[in-house]
TrEMBL record:
Top-level taxonomic group: Bacteria
Composition skew (Low complexity), residue ranges: 137-164
Pfam family, one: Phasin
Region described as Disordered: 123-164
Protein's name in the database: Phasin family protein
Xref: InterPro entries: PhaF_PhaI
């Protein structure tokens, strides 16, 4: 069976989408140049040029939206196909196992899932703690430089007030 890297599938779809957007942008720029040339030659009035350019821009934006929708749909179909292949491969693997081997495999997968869940929870906790630490640090730095320290009372008149 040929090796196929499904991880690069999204990159290919992204490249296709970006090429479509680039083509739309290039055609919009070219249409603007053509309109500008026709206005310079006097074949179009400035007002007609503006109307024509806005119509072309609207059509280009519609084409870009269509290209994005098409790329999104293709990516969704590709993910579905990848999931189908993964499911078929898993089913094939499980079908050659004995009932005992399948039970061991299920237990191993459950243990891996627990580990992943614990790692994600720990990462979320660490991110929350980091955010709380950053909030506390930001609150501590919000004190004005000339404010008295905790427990001190402000002196009226500065150093002269202390000398009296």
């Amino acid at each position: 069976m040929a090796d196929f890297n499904f991880n690069n599938l999204g990159d290919g779809l992204r490249t296709i989408f970006l090429a479509g957007v680039g083509a739309v942008a290039a055609s919009a720029e070219k249409s603007q140049q053509i309109v500008d040339e026709l206005v310079k030659k006097g074949e179009l009035t400035v007002e007609q040029g503006k109307v024509l350019n806005s119509e072309l821009t609207r059509k280009a934006q519609g084409a870009a939206k269509g290209a994005f929708a098409g790329a999104t749909d293709a990516a969704s179909k590709a993910r579905d196909a990848v999931d189908d292949v993964k499911d078929a491969a898993l089913k094939a693997r499980l079908s050659v196992m004995s009932e005992e081997e399948r039970a061991e495999y299920v237990a191993r997968v459950a243990k891996i899932a627990e580990t992943v869940n614990a790692e994600k929870a720990a990462a979320a906790d660490a991110a929350a703690a980091k955010g709380a630490d950053e909030d506390a640090a930001a609150a501590a730095t919000d004190v004005p430089a000339d404010a008295p320290a905790e427990g001190e009372t402000p002196a009226a008149g500065g150093a002269e007030a202390k000398a009296e």
